[in-house]
């Protein structure tokens, strides 16, 4: 609690105690009035002053003014207890609001506690200087000790360590890093001392970008928030005019029909209206729900760039995914050796040597599978057969590596493979020696990701790829994807998404998931663009509406579930707050609810709505 | 031109009122108050003087919310 809040708490306690005593004292008349004015002024003096200023500034529907009118009116009617109590509960409500909101802001802040306080700059004299990260220039060397946060993006120049990226990605398995590895600010250095040459200024580093993004996310207001803003603008004046009408009309009607006017009864009911006139519960709980939802999501490595995107995400019924990099790892791996005349390892060894001079991704994957650098001295007479493959002498034996055409040109018949992927046939000394299957491997969890999306209520899952049809259909079948569009050029992907957008039903949204590197136009065209594995990629963070910090495809469904929960809470709060207020207005007009009920409705609804909003923060197990 | 300012405001409804007041200020094209982040993003009209406009914004905001604060 800050100083202002403590002072308010003291005022509340003091005036509550005084009121308790006064209720027991058997005093009557003017003395009673004078005594009740003490707690009233203690608790309400600032509101009375603000109300006066409000009138001078021509702000008739200022809530201070309304509160002042309601309580002064109650006192004028002789309802001293109610006058003081309404003021008291109103202040308790305000105090709670400022305390709860401050606290939840801080706890969301703590969740995003990745901002480093300082950097250890390695000076030219070899000494360490603790400086503000903002002051570190690009290209300087900083030291990060075990247990410290990496303050600025850079490359390790000395040391080996493992890095905890949980605060950024929600991923609990540490990442290994050694000399030459790029490190991202916001990670926690776990084991060893490392020296980092910075590649970015602090303001441009990942950690600053993420914090900016999360803090500004709630500035992009959702439809629900705009609705509430409009509602709040109409609600207060409407209730005030309602109060005026309630005060004037029924007594006039009574007079017309020659009955008793009952002015004081209707005045009391009108004042009850004024007490309920503040839309506080709504106005506070909706942005707070979004803020909590966005904060909770970012702690799980899902950055949602605005409340409006949170809302759109919750309505997603069609998910369009890019294949390479999203569902598959995006790098080719040897996944099998078939019909080999030699030992499998030996075959790969020959293949890797024959392809030693090539930089083609397929050649690279063969060399990776071999596991060592090929010994070039064992290779000679390398002949590239364009569009077919390579023939080279390895250890004096003639090794041919390539497609079926190459095999046939050498006079041997290749054996076809039953698997789908890229097939590399081999012949050694003119005899067929088997083939190596190379695949772009499906990511761990890609299948579960698709299943989870369905469980989250996504009706249609489409995969787009530039890859050939056979490979695309094979991946789609293994993952359980409904629709595949293959052999697309980047520009075709936009067209494909546009066609799908046209098929959408009203109120349903389409999300596109890509790696953000060359699909920025598609990310922008979809209702909502989700970029994956974006940690450290500025382009992806820029282009997408939702950013998944790591490349786990299961996070897609998770982010949808987070948004659904957040929106459910928003809707609960809207209906609950409006419902209770309207109910109290109705009961107040009929004289069934007095000021006590009204103030409880006002403050109680707000407390419950704020507590409900904070639930949106808890999304870890979702 | 857009600029972001730190603000201090206690209640969400007051933040809403500050937003309205800022929007109506001369020289301000658009304003968004982010209550949760305690920030005000102001988009100025072309040629408006930032400092004097912000003084007017603060004055207008103080009219609707006496104890609000804008750091500029």
Descriptive account of the structure:
The complex is a heterodimer of chains A (622) and B (72). Chain A is an alpha+beta fold. Chain A contains 20 helices and 22 strands. The longest helix of chain A has 37 residues, at 554-590. With 72 residues, chain B is α+β, with helices and mostly antiparallel strands. Chain B has a single domain (2-70), classed as Alpha-Beta Plaits (2-Layer Sandwich). A four-stranded antiparallel sheet of chain B has the order 2-3-1-4. The two termini of chain B are 15 Å apart. The model of chain B has no long low-confidence stretch (mean pLDDT 86). The interface between A and B is medium-sized, with 26 and 17 residues.
Q: Which tags fit this structure?
A:
heterodimer; A: 622 residues; alpha+beta; Calcium-transporting ATPase, cytoplasmic transduction domain A; Calcium-transporting ATPase, cytoplasmic domain N; 7-stranded mixed sheet; 6-stranded antiparallel sheet; 20 helices; B: 72 residues; Alpha-Beta Plaits; 4-stranded antiparallel sheet; 38% helix; 31% strand
């Amino acid at each position: 609690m800050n100083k202002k809040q403590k002072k308010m708490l003291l005022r509340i306690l003091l005036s509550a105690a005084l009121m308790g005593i006064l209720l027991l004292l058997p005093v009557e008349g003017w003395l009673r009035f004078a005594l009740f004015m003490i707690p009233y002024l203690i608790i309400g003096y600032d509101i009375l002053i603000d109300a006066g200023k409000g009138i001078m500034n021509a702000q008739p529907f200022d809530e201070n003014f309304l509160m002042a009118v309601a309580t002064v009116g109650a006192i004028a009617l002789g309802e001293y207890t109610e006058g003081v109590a309404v003021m008291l509960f109103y202040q308790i409500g305000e105090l709670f609001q400022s305390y709860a909101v401050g606290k939840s802001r801080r706890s969301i802040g703590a969740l995003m506690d990745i901002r480093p306080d300082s950097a250890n700059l390695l000076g030219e004299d070899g000494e360490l200087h603790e400086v503000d990260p903002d002051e570190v220039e690009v290209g300087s060397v900083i030291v990060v000790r075990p247990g410290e946060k990496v303050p600025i993006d850079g490359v390790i120049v000395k040391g080996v360590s493992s890095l905890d990226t949980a605060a950024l990605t929600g991923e609990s398995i540490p990442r290994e890093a050694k000399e030459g590895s790029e490190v991202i600010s916001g990670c926690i250095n776990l084991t060893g001392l490392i020296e980092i040459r910075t590649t970015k200024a602090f303001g441009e580093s990942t950690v600053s970008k993420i914090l900016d993004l999360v803090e500004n996310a709630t500035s992009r207001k959702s439809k629900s928030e705009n609705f509430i803003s409009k509602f709040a603008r109409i609600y207060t004046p409407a209730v005030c005019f309602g109060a005026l009408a309630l005060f004037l009309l029924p007594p006039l009607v009574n007079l017309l029909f020659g009955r008793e006017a009952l002015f004081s009864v209707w005045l009391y009911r009108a004042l009850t209206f004024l007490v309920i006139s503040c839309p506080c519960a709504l106005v506070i709980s909706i942005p707070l729900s979004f803020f909590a939802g966005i904060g909770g999501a970012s702690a799980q490595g899902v950055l949602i760039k605005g409340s409006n995107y949170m809302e759109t995400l919750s309505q997603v019924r069609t998910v369009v995914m890019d294949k390479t990099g999203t569902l598959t790892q995006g790098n080719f791996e040897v996944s099998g050796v078939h019909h080999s005349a030699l030992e499998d390892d030996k075959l790969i060894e020959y293949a890797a040597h024959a392809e030693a001079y090539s930089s083609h991704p397929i050649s690279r994957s063969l060399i990776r599978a071999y596991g060592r650098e090929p010994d070039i001295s064992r290779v000679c007479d390398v002949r590239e057969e364009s569009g077919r493959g390579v023939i080279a002498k390895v250890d004096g034996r003639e090794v041919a590596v390539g497609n079926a055409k190459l095999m046939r040109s050498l006079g041997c018949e290749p054996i076809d493979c039953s698997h789908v992927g890229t097939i590399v046939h081999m012949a050694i000394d003119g005899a067929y020696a088997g083939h190596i299957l190379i695949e772009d491997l499906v990511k761990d969890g890609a299948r579960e990701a698709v299943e989870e999306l369905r469980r989250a209520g996504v009706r249609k899952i489409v995969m787009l790829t530039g890859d050939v049809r056979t490979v695309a259909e094979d991946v789609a079948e293994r993952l359980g994807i409904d629709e595949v569009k293959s052999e697309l050029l980047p520009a075709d992907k936009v067209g494909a998404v546009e066609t799908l957008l046209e098929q959408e039903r009203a109120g349903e949204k389409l999300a596109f998931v890509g790696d953000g590197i060359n699909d920025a136009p598609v990310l922008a065209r979809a209702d909502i663009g989700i970029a994956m594995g974006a940690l450290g990629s500025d382009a992806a963070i820029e282009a997408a509406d939702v950013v998944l910090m790591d490349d786990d495809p299961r996070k897609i469904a998770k982010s949808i579930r987070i948004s659904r929960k957040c929106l459910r809470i928003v809707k609960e709060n809207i209906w609950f707050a409006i419902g209770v207020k309207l109910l109290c207005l109705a009961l107040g007009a009929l004289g069934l609810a007095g000021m006590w009920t009204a103030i409880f409705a006002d403050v109680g609804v707000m407390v419950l709505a704020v507590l409900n909003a904070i639930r949106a923060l808890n999304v870890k197990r979702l | 031109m857009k600029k972001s300012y730190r603000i201090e405001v206690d209640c969400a409804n007051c933040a809403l009122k500050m937003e309205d007041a800022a929007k109506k200020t001369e020289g301000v094209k658009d304003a968004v108050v982010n209550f949760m982040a305690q920030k005000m993003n102001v988009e100025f009209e072309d040629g408006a003087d930032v400092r004097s406009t912000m003084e007017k914004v603060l004055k207008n905001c103080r009219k609707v919310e006496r104890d609000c604060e804008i750091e500029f």
